[in-house]
Sequence to fold (467 residues):
Amino acid sequence: MTIYHISAECFPIAKVGGLGDVVGALPKYQNALGESSSVIMPFYDNKYTRTHEFELIHSGRLQLGMPMDYNILTLKNNDLGFNVYFVDVPYLLYKDYVYSSNDTGRFLAFQIAALNWLVQLEKVPDIVHCHDHHTGLIPFMMSQCYAYQRLRQTPSVITIHNGQYQGWFSHDLVHLIPPFDFGKVGLLDWNKLVNPLAAGIKCAWKVTTVSPSYMNELKYAANGLEHLLRTESHKCVGILNGIDSEVWNPKTDTYIEKNYTIKSVESGKAANKAWVCQQFGLNPELPLFVFIGRLVGEKGADLLPYIFEEALWSRKLCVLMLGSGDNRVENQLESLKHAHVGYYNNYIGYNEKLSHLLYAAADFLLMPSRVEPCGLNQMYALRYGTVPVVNSVGGLMDTVIDVGENGFGIRHSGPTVHEVVHAMGRGVAFYGYKDHFKKNRRLMMQIDHSWDTSAKTYINLYQSIQL
Ligand code: ADP
Fold:
């Protein structure tokens, strides 16, 4: 099958969060299963594009209120394990960021250029797989726009990585979408706005979310799309994300201080912890809790300053936080440093290398998320022998079993300061049972969350909609 993933992010080219990780791994695993899976993404102005060479394979012109030239580029020396086709729309997409607050025109241009290119290929795709609202208009355009009639029989799939963001815009801009039978405009609409995610859900042949539990949750909490997801539930399915076990492998990870395997996990983690604690002025004798993520309400970030403040006074643990987002939370976290010298520190910003180091160095990873469609952090933590401490929500419910239930992690029920601090207390106690704690590390590292199984599940799904 010829599969094209269309996405705003793809690791290692451009990553903001889990979407980048998924799109940078799934095609590789699908190719390993004998399929031909590629990615179409925007050409951004970033470190990756500045340090690699590209080849022009197609040029065209699109209409977005006015004519606009676009190019399709590929990598000259590609060692990613899958082909990537870059959509270059010079003044719109070629920016030093992935997302901004004014993205309607950018991602419309991206989607139109991607389809303009796909529709003129000698062999049309067998599957077009869209990811999140930035590509949500593609299933509509493939099925409704006159220009893309040749793609009408091509099955489209949309994966909801995060249902909170839907990309809505005013009907005043609907003329920017290539011509279609205006009687079908209702397919674009949700609550009197053009809603790309809703349009994707209505028009794609299959809708997936990144975990089974999140699929169920969306029927009750989907930022306004609950009813739609309930009525379209016959074509919806939750498929748990995997992790790229080549990129996330403590044995070979070039970002960490000391590589380790299940056999050498104790000395390996101790060396990484010692290094990180030294860099951040923390006490390596105490259990180390880390948080890695976007500082937004969905991740429970607003609770973090209060959680840390309460937990740290016990002086029985250390905390290291890596993340950026809400300014107020960033400031609150920064000010904690002075009150808890030697016990608390943070790095405000995005740092891929440091994230790997923290998974390797930490004893516990905190995820007090209010919403977690799948969550990759907890799976990386398991692979690096780090105990996930998670709220019982979304994909965290599908991947973390509590130690109290013959599992390996710590779960709390509710994203509240009290619940999380209590869970951290359980963690400190668990850390004290040295033998059990060590055995648990080895157990966690054996859990297989690689993409092998889920990549097959996606292939089966594609096969089920082939004509
Ligand atoms: P989401 O996509 O909602 O942000 P996921 O758990 O699916 O959450 O994926 C988050 C990904 O982003 C992980 O790979 C995590 O390590 C990474 N990440 C998040 N924040 C940072 C940061 N500040 N620095 C480095 N990596 C980060």
User: Anything to note?
Assistant: The pocket of adenosine-5'-diphosphate is lined by residues 17-19, 21, 292-294, 322-324, 350-352, 355, 374-377 (CB under 6 Å). The longest strand covers residues 54-63.
